[in-house]
Prior knowledge:
By secondary structure, the protein is α+β, with helices and mostly antiparallel strands. The protein is built from 6 helices and 4 strands; from the N terminus they run H-H-E-H-E-H-E-H-E-H.
Amino acid sequence: MDIYECILNRRSIRHYTEKPIADDVVRRVLNAGRLAPSAVNLQPWRFIVIRSGEMRRALVECTRGGKQRQLEMGTMALVACGNERDCYQHQGNFLKTYAIDVAIALEHIMLAAAAEGLGTCWIGAFDEPAVKDLLDIPDPWRVVAMTPLGYPDESPDFKGRKPLAEIVCYEKWEEKG
Ligand SMILES: Cc1cc2nc3c(=O)[nH]c(=O)nc-3n(C[C@H](O)[C@H](O)[C@H](O)COP(=O)(O)O)c2cc1C
């Protein structure tokens, strides 16, 4: 699948089938994350693959209101972690990059998953200390996001996006109505 097709067709998937994912497919998708760019090429990321249904149910309990049930559907979830100490500390002279680095790698994973016919859904509504405790994640690692990974059991409509004219300026900042 062409990259633009992946970008166009990817959706956040919240319902999954039980169909297992072949190991080589999982490996290709994770490898797409490994190849992502990061500040000073520090690669301050770790991806935890969770296959255990019991563990994924426990992860759901770590989400806000225990509502992100898509994490326990299908056969697998990923927990994306970033190292806040061993990442570039001064982006723009004000920002640590671990969350940016991990987000880019996870988006690589999500687009590769889409190319493989798999679904993902960025989960940001979780209680980080609870996830760290559940999975024994030490400091200075932070949990940036989680996602289910599996074969979609739904085909959501495109949610729409702001038009380019509203989000792009040329040469300098422009106020947009
Ligand atoms: C930073 C971030 C946090 C998100 N958190 C959640 C979440 O906690 N639960 C959820 O179901 N979707 C979550 N999403 C998915 C968005 O709701 C989704 O990307 C958006 O509505 C657009 O839909 P689409 O991905 O199908 O194009 C999150 C997405 C991002 C980028």
